[in-house]
Amino acid sequence: MEEIQKFIQRNSRRILAIFILFAAVMTMLIVSGSGPTGDAWVAIKAIPVGAKVTNADIALLKVNLTTDSGHYLTGSDVAVGRFLRRSVTAGELIAQGNLSPVPIDTTLQYLPVGIATNDLPNDLAVSDLVNIYVIPRDQGTVPALIAMHISVQSIDSKSRNLGGTVALSLATNSSVANLIIDAESQGRLVLARAPF
Known about the structure:
With 196 residues, this protein is α+β, with helices and mostly antiparallel strands. Helix content is 25%, strand content 31%. The protein has four helices and nine strands, in the order ααβββββββαβαβ.
């Protein structure tokens, strides 16, 4: 008994350090496994815009989505037989707003536009969906929403880094392209990230 007390006294700092390390590891394991998990649909391969989703295109995957769980299709949601509003890459989760029950017009045009750096989100990325507004030059006209859920196909990173005007390419059908071109001639275009 006396030997144990001497051992503890001589090695008290080491014992405390080992205990703290053990407690930290246990806490990390508990916290990492505590998030909400569930099944979500993920693309097995790249699927183009307008394609009808089949069983061969997607699979259920166990994921930890935390606060984003409402934005993605879960295992109980129907994905097969619906149509993609934008292209999906392999391994990407299928978002709620990315599927349509009706066929999508796949006669898309890629419309180049120039947007001021202050008129688009700083973290805008390729394949993001945006809503497009126009702020008219005419002071008597109010700003208006021109188009919704338009996919960003490309962003010229060089023009973005220089500031001023950022060159973008938007994927849209011909009728919406005409609206955007008309709005661009009347004023300044502003892009806002579309909600899920």
